[in-house]
Amino acid sequence: MELEQLRAFAAVAEEKSYTKAGERLYMSHSTMSRAVSALEREFGVRLIRRDNHVAGLTPEGEKLYEMAKELLDMASEIEEKMHSG
Q1: First to last CA, the chain
Q2: pTM (2 decimals)?
Q3: CB proximity list for 42: less than 8 A, separation 6 or greater
Q4: Measured between alpha carbons, how far is residue 41 from residues 35, 36, 37 in Å?
C-alpha cells in the first residue's frame, strides 16, 4: 500500500468517477484504475462498486476511505510542518 494509491482511491471515492478523480490528480483513468485494483488485490476485497459509470464504495471501501482520509491528512500535516521549519 502506497500513499499515491490511497490518494487515487480517496479521489475516486469522493468524485465517484475514475475520470474526474484522474483529472483532479492529473492522472489518467487507467492509472487511477490500476491504483484501486492494486489496493483491492492487496487487501483481497472489492473496494469500488461500478454501477452505470458511477463508482460507489463497498462496505469495505467505506472503511478504507475513512482510514485513508485520516492517513492522508496526517501525511499532508507532516509535509507542511517539515517544509515550514
Answers
A1: 28
A2: 0.90
A3: 1
A4: 10, 9, 6
Residue with cell 484501486: 36
- Note whether 7 and 24 are within 8 A (CB): no
SS (H, E, C) 22-75: HHHHCCCHHHHHHHHHHHHHHHCCCCEEEECCEEEECHHHHHHHHHHHHHHHHH
Distances (CA, A) of 13 to 10, 23, 60, 75, 78: 5, 14, 12, 19, 23
For 11-59, the pLDDT digits (tens) are 999 999 999 999 999 999 999 999 999 999 999 999 999 877 777 999 9
In angstroms, the CA 9 to CA 18 distance is 9
